[in-house]
Design a protein that fits this description.
heterotrimer; A alpha+beta (362); B mainly alpha (318); C mainly alpha (273); A: alpha+beta; six-stranded mixed β-sheet; 21 strands; 24% helix; C: 273 residues; 78% helix
Chain lengths: 362, 318, 273
């Protein structure tokens, strides 16, 4: 068990830069999720830790050691691949034992570790089977088991759940978290699914085009996104982002877009003349006079998503602004109808119009 | 030291690792990834291949620029041998014969294969495995045996003449392999027999992977069978056609075994093919230099043909 | 549509072509089943299954020896070229080293190059070394050529293996050789089998190389002995036919047993070209 550290890591493939100067500290025993869209560099970062790719610059530390020049087998890590990469001609037992045999671990120790892993993951009956005789979920557990028996300093997981169906995915998510709670090994977990990231990570690192956009615990990332990218990426349905003009004057700030005017009480920060306004659906509600909402705003319904527990309403507001409202699951409204809504104060995110950086909340 | 770079393919940014990606050499090797040891793996194969294929080829090229009887020292002849290849009527004729054989070994089986593939294109045939196994048989039998078999069939009292006589076509019966005009086509026909099974197997396999939906779409658009063939079937089997053509033309251009067993180049020199001429020149008439030149020319023709076929095949794709 | 008619037509077409392919071979078998002295004219059915022609041909043609020689030559070639081609193909497919592409094209050259372009110096050089008329005279050039094909073939196979498999093994600490032997090869039995079959078939059936390299004093390959046999016994068609069957039999036998593998291999291989 050991901390993992990225120090100004830089990775180039020919002329293409995959990772720009990444610095990230993963604490000992932490479950860190690297999340982002395809091409964000998250998998590349993982592979750099594994030693499957070479660094173009910077350093990577596992524990006290700088592992830049070490081949994968000397880094004391174990990896779970997206397609599991189980050795097809070997039994489950042999799959689990392979790495240990190569490392010349004594036979009874191998047996012991395999048995423990098999029990933890419920693989006991499957030890004599071959991968092609297993279901997707079972194969995934064998892949996990293979990593477990190595007893490494860090687990590296590359989107291990993406090949599972939705229900199995949720179930396995819980199992992996439970395992981590029990065993406590440092884990670096890569996924493109932000729900997975939010539910599994002690901290999540949001990456985009080779850059680290924000790192923090799920709550912070969700409620205090560092920029528009993180704000839009995390959370579903996504935060609605609209460009607005900012008018400051005598103790209040007005956000203007065409006929849309939002008057907010004193702002606690310096705002530029233009900004990006971000509001999450759960903070945009149907108007009611005594709810203390910021607004009102009049708009027209563009679409309705009735999900049973809640209903999301896509609204077109003046000036071409668009918002998503959240309403009670039983609420019904039709497309094209007029709707009046407002925002919960303190939940209006303001971002810089050009850099996208977070400026504060109103 | 020059930093030659192969072009980089799409970056592995998302790291989907199901396929191999060739990267620019400027990308440094991950630690522990086998790189230089690759040379060691290749070395034995390269040595044997180099010693018994590459070096002799270079040697042949060198020899083709000399005159040699195989006993005394070779004497420099420059491009004299190649001039012979291009101008000597006998030698040039051998290449002409090879071209005729291409029609039989290559074009005819291709057409037959396409006909069969087209007719089978829309359905699964039961027992296809059995038929494939039988169709492929001629490829398996030694060409010497094939030559013997057909020599018997095409003989003066052979099955073909017997059949013709039986059908009342006495006048058509002739000594096929001894006839100045018919010997070469006869060998060609044997070649067709040898190759058509291969063409069929490859083309039928290619056709079977065409998704049925394409045919349905064509039919809905009102296409008849001929239009269907050209619009749907043909483009999809382009690769197989290229492979069939390359394999068959290469065989046609070589065809030593059949000629040796069936006609020995005769009657006269009507069935002499380049490889046969090469053989007699190098080992019987003491003209090793000429033989070498024929060999190199043959190689050039084969490469050029294969290149042209592949290019045309690719261009149709565009 | 006209499903039934189509189906009948297709089967008829297939049957016709299959018959055409089988016919001559079957015909020869029938001829060979006649006793050595009976007069044959064209298509004739034997009175009974008479194997005397086979026995006579075997004795007089020395096929026992030539079959053995062919077996030795083909076996050695297959073994040597397979091992070397697997190693080279593996390296080309999984390792990135300088000049790999260029080197691979060098091997590819041998796929298309007509063998005729090398036999002349091969013969004279071997003769100079006193090695003509030995097994090596045929084995070595055959191996060289088979390596070109084999390397291409095995590289294509190794390329089709998922990269994550090799990476997982590398993380597990396996060396490149271990990955090859314990992970990829067990997976690749069909591909190796097809290569072995094809190389065996081509080497066994080779004629030109044996003709040039072997004078017939010591060693003869099966096709070579058949060619000499038929040259000296033109009139006894039954004996020649029997000889042809004897020579073709081993490959035919292997083919019949493994034909599905054979053909599937050839078909899938053509895609890779």
């Amino acid at each position: 068990m050991a901390p993992v550290r990225f120090e100004r890591v830089h990775k180039r493939f020919g002329d293409v830069v995959a990772i720009h100067e990444l610095t990230l500290d993963i604490a000992d025993g932490e479950f860190m999720v690297l999340v982002g869209p395809s091409g964000s560099g998250k998998t590349t970062a993982l592979r750099l830790v594994a030693g499957l790719e070479a660094l173009s610059g910077g350093h990577i530390h596992i524990g006290a050691r700088c592992v830049d020049r070490l081949p994968p087998k000397r880094r004391d890590i174990a990896m779970v691949f997206q397609d599991y990469a189980l050795y097809p001609q070997m039994t489950v037992y042999d799959n689990l034992a392979f790495g240990l045999r190569v490392a010349k671990v004594p036979r009874d120790e191998i047996r012991r570790r395999v048995d423990v892993a098999a029990e933890v993951l419920g693989l006991g009956d499957l030890l004599r089977r071959k991968p092609r005789q297993l279901s997707g979920g079972q194969r995934q557990r064998v892949a996990l088991g293979r990593a477990l028996v190595r007893q490494p300093q860090a687990f590296l997981m590359d989107e291990p759940l993406s090949n599972l169906d939705a229900k199995l995915r949720v179930q396995t998510r819980g199992e992996i978290k439970r395992l981590h709670a029990e065993i406590g090994t440092t884990t670096v977990y890569v996924t493109h699914d932000q729900v997975e990231a939010m539910t599994m990570g002690d901290r999540i690192a949001v990456m985009n085009e080779g850059r680290l956009e924000q790192v923090g615990d799920p709550d912070t990332v969700y409620h205090q996104p560092a920029n528009t990218f993180v704000a839009a990426f995390v959370g579903s349905p996504a935060m609605a982002l609209n460009a607005v003009d900012v008018v400051t004057g005598d103790g209040q700030v007005t956000l203007v877009r065409d006929r849309l005017r939002l008057v907010v009480a004193r702002a606690a920060c310096d705002l530029p003349a233009r900004a990006m306004l971000g509001v999450r659906p759960e903070h945009a509600r149907l108007w009611s006079d005594d709810a203390g909402l910021v607004g009102p705003v009049d708009g027209q319904v563009e679409y309705v998503e009735a999900l049973g527990r809640e209903t999301f309403i896509g609204v077109a507001a003046p000036g071409g602004a668009r918002f998503v409202l959240e309403a009670d699951g039983a609420y019904r409204i039709r497309i094209g109808e007029h709707v009046r809504f407002g925002f919960i104060p303190g939940r209006l995110h303001v971002f810089h119009p050009d850099t996208g950086a977070a400026l504060g909340r109103l | 030291m020059t930093q030659a770079t192969a072009s980089a393919d799409a970056p592995l940014a998302s790291g989907r690792s199901s396929t191999w990606v060739r990267l620019s050499r400027r990308t440094e090797a991950p630690p522990g990834e086998p790189r230089r040891i690759g040379y060691l793996y290749i070395l034995p194969a390269l040595l044997v291949y180099g010693a018994f294929v590459l070096v002799p080829f270079a040697h042949t090229a060198w020899l083709s620029l000399h005159e040699w009887d195989g006993v005394t020292s070779p004497t420099w002849a420059g491009l004299e041998n190649y001039r012979s290849v291009l101008t000597d009527p006998h030698v040039r004729a051998t290449f002409g014969h090879a071209l005729v054989l291409i029609v039989f070994y290559s074009l005819l089986p291709l057409v037959l294969g396409l006909v069969l593939a087209a007719s089978l294109s829309r359905m699964r045939v039961r027992g296809l495995t059995f038929f494939r196994a039988v169709l492929f048989l001629p490829q398996v039998v030694s060409l010497v045996a094939v030559g013997i078999i057909w020599k018997w069939i095409l003989g003066p009292e052979g099955s073909l003449n017997q059949a013709l006589r039986g059908l009342g076509l006495e006048s058509a019966a002739r000594p096929w392999l001894g006839d100045f005009g018919w010997a070469l086509p006869s060998i060609g026909l044997v070649g067709t027999w040898v190759m058509y099974g291969l063409a069929m197997v490859l083309l039928v396999a290619g056709v079977q992977k065409i998704p049925a939906s394409l045919y349905d779409a064509a039919r809905v658009d009102g296409a008849g069978p001929v239009r269907e063939f050209f619009a749907v079937t043909l483009p999809w089997v382009r690769n197989e056609v290229v492979v069939v053509l390359v394999l068959t033309t290469t065989t046609a251009l070589r065809s030593f075994d059949l000629v040796y067993v069936m006609t020995q180049g005769g009657p006269g020199t009507t069935t002499e093919v380049p490889s046969y001429r090469l053989y007699t020149a190098a080992f019987q008439t003491g003209q090793a230099g000429l033989g070498a030149a024929i060999g190199i020319t043959l190689a050039i023709v084969i490469f050029a043909l294969a290149f042209a076929i592949t290019r045309i095949g690719e261009r149709r794709a565009a | 549509m006209t499903g039934a008619i189509d189906r009948v037509l297709n089967h008829a077409l297939l049957a016709f072509f299959a018959l055409m392919a089988l016919g001559p071979i079957a015909g020869v078998v029938l001829v060979a089943l006649h006793p050595p002295d009976a007069p044959i004219s064209g298509l004739a059915l034997p009175d009974g299954l008479d194997l005397s022609s086979f026995r006579l041909a075997w004795r007089e043609g020395g096929f026992g020896h030539s079959l053995q020689s062919s077996a030795i030559i083909a076996g050695t070639t297959v073994l040597a070229s397979s091992v070397l081609a697997i190693l080279a193909g593996y390296a080309f497919a999984t390792m990135r080293f300088r000049g790999a592409t260029a080197l691979f094209y060098v091997f590819l050259f041998g796929l298309l190059m007509p063998f005729e372009a090398t036999i002349i110096p091969l013969y004279y050089d071997f003769r100079g070394l006193g090695l003509t008329d030995t097994y090596w005279a045929v084995i070595l050039p055959s191996t060289g050529l088979s390596i070109a094909f084999g390397t291409f073939w095995m590289r294509a196979f190794f390329l089709s293996a998922p990269r994550s498999l090799v990476e997982a093994a590398r993380i597990d600490g396996a060396s490149s050789l271990t990955v090859l032997l314990r992970i990829l090869l067990p997976f690749g039995r069909p591909a190796v089998l097809t290569m072995v079959l094809l190389v065996f078939m081509w080497t066994w059936n080779d004629f030109l190389l044996s003709l040039v390299m072997l004078s017939g004093q010591n060693i003869l390959t099966a096709p070579l002995s058949l060619a000499f046999f038929q040259a000296s016994r033109e009139t006894h068609i039954q004996l020649v036919a029997a000889g042809a069957i004897i020579v073709a039999a081993p490959v035919l036998a292997v083919y019949l047993v493994l034909q599905r593998q054979f053909i599937r291999g050839v078909v899938s291989g053509s895609v890779k070209l």
